[in-house]
Amino acid sequence: MNNFIYDIPTKVYFGEGQIAHLPELIRTCGKRVLLVYGGGSIKKSGLYDTIIGLLKENGIESQELSGVQSNPKIESVRQGIQIVREHQLDCVLAVGGGSTLDCSKAICAGVKYDGDPWELVLDRTKVKACLPLITILTMAATGSEMDNIAVISNPETQDKKGFSSYGMFPKFSILDPTYTYSVPALQTAAGTADIMSHIMESYFDQVRDASVQDGISEALLKTCIESAPVALKKPNDYQARANLMWAASLAINGLNSLGKNRAWTCHPLEHVLSAYYDITHGVGLAILTPRWMKHVLNEQTVDVFARFALHVWNVDPQLDCWAAAEEGIARLYEFFVSMGLPMTLREVGIDESRLEEMAEKAAESDFSRSFQPLTCEDILEIYRASL
Amino acid sequence: MNNFIYDIPTKVYFGEGQIAHLPELIRTCGKRVLLVYGGGSIKKSGLYDTIIGLLKENGIESQELSGVQSNPKIESVRQGIQIVREHQLDCVLAVGGGSTLDCSKAICAGVKYDGDPWELVLDRTKVKACLPLITILTMAATGSEMDNIAVISNPETQDKKGFSSYGMFPKFSILDPTYTYSVPALQTAAGTADIMSHIMESYFDQVRDASVQDGISEALLKTCIESAPVALKKPNDYQARANLMWAASLAINGLNSLGKNRAWTCHPLEHVLSAYYDITHGVGLAILTPRWMKHVLNEQTVDVFARFALHVWNVDPQLDCWAAAEEGIARLYEFFVSMGLPMTLREVGIDESRLEEMAEKAAESDFSRSFQPLTCEDILEIYRASL
């Protein structure tokens, strides 16, 4: 494995009722907070009232930025920065899923930067300081609660880009599985696909001798495969929701990619789709991943896919490596189908018309250190196979 | 799973050559350091000279405490505290295995305490502040490089006790697998048994629904089973040493026991043996663990042992749960034998004579929340079965 530095500074409060810690956590950052959230779901669930009650009881002043959309837009980031500056707020409290958290990270970085925040997205080295961020997660998916990455969309340029900086790690994250009970089935399934994709982006990597990390990846994948169907069937199953939630955090907090190349493939391919068509990120990943796997299955990769099949999907150990590899890819596809995910681009409104344009955009990413390097033609083939 | 807080503050620099970071790490703590080490192995390997060279080049003043023994004694802690106070040192640099690191943690805590440091071992709530600690690990075993626990022996009272406090986490740990190339075969084997015991202490636990954590435990155990034989055969195999080293850290940094009861069994049983007979900790664990497993295998536990057998030892999935459980325990025993470990108490110089006395001492620990509660009689039976 490559050399690495382990440094995951986010402190996580995990479990039912951990929100009781919120006031003491905010107090370590200051007394004035920007509350960021998306639509009305936290109002419907009562979480909003709980939070406002805790803030009031503890004399914490708050301002609000609501309406953060999925695939969060740079415009929301700009709005948040303006509110923080106007009211001289001390920290940001993000309540929601990955979009709300990512938008909040960009706000935390943008507040300390004089120029337009989109410049930070384009060049993360410009991030010099960040406001502290506290998150309360309401959906298991992106892992944004324990990493320092924010993915922001710019509708004007049809860009969707990730950027990261050490200061963008949440200082504290409150993970209460009961807040995910109300996540609808399709979002639960899409979130699971996103978690699994994060794990597989690290697992399918040129570095193949990191046994601890790959074993952790396999354990996390198996947790998703066991827990998601339970959560879909019984949305209020605490243990299933808890295991999915913790798997989501560990899938991308760096643990399973330490000492690996960290050169992702499917995410950059999907980001272009959701930038052009605003589709659900996890759905895009579910559609692309099995097609990408088939595309890169070859003499060099077959052993890795066979291991994936054996350790994650428990395929018959008697199968030869090619049969095992193909069986593993088929099992992944069937699993996504079983969760009710649409599995073709056409089903989510994407047709042939802009595939070439999107492939060219995606090919701007650097795939040279990926599990298998991809050219523009490769990407186009994967997109076409996904129609 | 139970509620938990994830908070692992140690920053780890992992890989060959990471010692280059040492001066910058010390500088974050001050300019005067206590260098703590054991016997002469770091002089023979050249590591001592490398460190002294780096300190001198960077104008860092150092004092030394050498001769820290295995099962580190409270007297070494007292000596270290005195040197730190006399020379007004800013931090401690521990270079060695678990004993050196544990002794150093106790020094860091003891320096800030007015009374005798044994009082801190007996009552960890008395630890109020700690000097910063940097570690350079030379052996994969105890995981002390990434946890906040110190186990200290007091020959006067024949006690060997662990204590912990948040401030006792190392601030930085440098993990270079090449430093473990020179670890002798028996120590490599005993270290592996210690790592595996840490993992199993968390795995065999009353909390059975923490799928992520148990999956990580299984992955870590499999890494030990794969890597230790390679390291024993080829002591300079970088990947085997690296995987063992990283498994050792994750085995006990809390990751695989989050949300579990954390009520260990075999360690308290072994601590008494090594307090009375000063045997190698990992050897004691290897001898006791399979006997403990047989003792607690029953209707309530058989499924857990069967899962252990299936997921860790890949036993035939067709076996019924009892046969699988017994096969898993036998495979663990055989694995310890295959590494060349002595597998009876008599072989390490322990006979019948003090078993009852030691069982009474061990029974002072609280086993009520352990995987299976143990009485003094249970412990005596396990000791006898280990003769």
UniProtKB/TrEMBL annotation, chains A, B:
Residues 9-177 form the Alcohol dehydrogenase iron-type/glycerol dehydrogenase GldA domain. Keywords: Oxidoreductase. The keyword Oxidoreductase applies. Pfam families: ADH_Fe_C, Fe-ADH. One of its GO terms (cellular component) is cytosol. Residues 188-386 form the Fe-containing alcohol dehydrogenase-like C-terminal domain. The keyword Oxidoreductase applies. PROSITE patterns: ADH_IRON_1, ADH_IRON_2. GO terms for molecular function: alcohol dehydrogenase (NADP+) activity; butanol dehydrogenase (NAD+) activity; metal ion binding; methylglyoxal reductase (NADPH) (acetol producing) activity. Gene3D superfamilies: 3.40.50.1970, Dehydroquinate synthase-like - alpha domain (1.20.1090.10). It comes from the Bacteria. PANTHER family: ALCOHOL DEHYDROGENASE YQHD (PTHR43633:SF1). This is Iron-containing alcohol dehydrogenase. It comes from Holdemania massiliensis.
